[in-house]
Design goal:
- Helices cover 69% and strands 0% of the residues.
- The protein is mostly helical.
- It has one domain.
- α1 packs antiparallel against α2, α2 packs antiparallel against α3 and α3 runs antiparallel to α4.
């Protein structure tokens, strides 16, 4: 791995983008205006998560690797929940009528769940036992403190 990656900031940005997506799908916005952008954000987020996972799998000598994997696992869980919200019409965006989009989102969600399982194997145990994407989001007090530092 020749690149120097700031995993913490990258994962933080992913989490903020996921929050933005969840907020947009729950607002009463016009789906015709935002659907394409939301889908682009979902595809981009999947690509970032996949890339970060690849780098962490390649480099097992990173300091704080287990901690980074734990944060990545949480991002994967939030990503899966975000997709679940779109698929289950938790807002104005309806993709079930567009079969190809629904199928792609289901594929991405399943892929995310598989990456979380791979993270569990890398850390030799469950990182977060709550795999149900339909549950509400959970933020530890440490994560909340880190998020609030920016404000």
């Amino acid at each position: 791995m020749n690149k120097r990656i700031n995993f913490e900031d990258s994962i933080f940005i992913v989490m903020m983008r996921l929050r933005m997506i969840r907020d947009v799908i729950t607002l009463d916005a016009d789906p015709e205006l935002f659907l394409e952008k939301i889908l682009d954000d979902i595809y981009f987020t999947d690509d970032v998560l996949r890339t970060l996972m690849g780098y962490l799998e390649e480099n097992n000598s990173l300091t704080k690797r287990d901690e980074l994997l734990e944060h990545l696992s949480e991002a994967e869980l939030q990503f899966s929940r975000c997709i679940d919200g779109i698929l289950n019409n938790k807002g104005n965006l309806t993709v079930r009528e567009i079969a190809s989009i629904g199928e792609k989102l289901i594929f991405l969600q399943n892929d995310s769940i598989e990456r979380r399982k791979a993270i569990e194997e890398l850390t030799s145990g469950p990182v977060n036992r709550d795999d149900d994407p339909a549950d509400g989001s959970k933020v530890s007090s440490e994560e909340l403190s880190e998020l609030l530092k920016a404000f």
